[in-house]
Design goal:
mainly alpha; 31% helix
C-alpha cells in the first residue's frame, strides 16, 4: 500500500498460518519440514486434517512432489509405463519425470506407482532431480562407513553416496537400510 502523505510504500508481511493436520504435532521431529512442504503446496495431506507422516511414501506420490517442486510444467506426452493410467493424480508427474530422465521404471514397461518407495529409490529420484535443476551433485560420502553399504543396488550407488555426502541420508545405528521403505515424514 502507498501512504498518501509520504508517498512511501508500506510492505506488510502476513505470517503463514500453522498447518492444521491432527497427526502432525508441534515438537515432532518432522513438524517444521511438513509445515514448509504443506505451505508451499509441494506436499498435501491425505485428507484436509491428516498428513499421515508414518505412511509409506509411494513412488507415484514422490513423482508428484518432484513435479510440484518443478512448478508443474506442461507435459508433452505420456510415459511408456502400462501401469500408469491416464487421469491418475500422478500421471502427468510420471510422464514429466520420465521425459526429463528423473524416473525410470522397475522394468521398461512398469513404474509401480502405488508401490512404497524405498530409501534408495527416494534418494535416486532426488539425485536425478537435483541434476535436472543444475545443482552441484559432486558431494560423495562413503558407503563403506555403513555395515549394509554393500547392499545398495548398483543403480543407486552414486545417488546414495551423494545423499550420504550431503547429509540427506544418515543411516540408523550404522546401517543405511537402502531397501527399507520411506515415510511421508522422512521425505518432507
Amino acid at each position: 500500500a502507498t501512504l498518501p502523505e509520504t508517498n512511501e510504500t508500506l510492505e506488510l508481511t502476513i505470517p503463514a498460518l500453522p498447518i492444521a493436520f491432527e497427526d502432525v504435532k508441534p515438537g515432532a521431529w518432522y513438524y517444521d519440514a511438513v509445515e514448509e512442504m504443506a505451505q508451499t503446496g509441494r506436499m498435501i495431506g491425505v485428507s484436509e486434517t491428516r498428513f499421515a507422516p508414518q505412511m509409506n511414501l509411494t513412488r507415484g506420490q514422490l513423482m508428484l512432489i518432484l513435479y510440484r517442486m518443478a512448478e508443474s510444467p506442461e507435459v508433452d506426452g505420456k510415459s511408456p509405463f502400462t501401469d500408469v493410467a491416464e487421469g491418475q493424480f500422478y500421471s502427468d508427474a510420471v510422464a514429466w519425470a520420465y521425459e526429463n530422465e528423473i524416473a525410470m521404471g522397475v522394468t521398461d514397461t512398469r513404474f509401480a506407482p502405488e508401490a512404497p518407495a524405498t530409501r534408495e529409490q527416494v534418494v535416486t529420484f532426488l539425485y536425478r532431480y537435483a541434476k535436472f535443476v543444475g545443482m552441484d551433485v559432486s558431494a560423495q560420502g562413503s558407503l563403506r562407513d555403513f555395515s549394509d553399504g554393500q547392499t545398495v543396488s548398483a543403480y543407486a550407488e552414486e545417488a546414495v553416496a551423494w545423499a550420504v555426502g550431503r547429509g540427506l541420508l544418515v543411516g540408523d545405528n550404522g546401517n543405511l537400510l537402502p531397501r527399507d521403505t520411506a515415510t511421508r515424514a522422512q521425505l518432507a
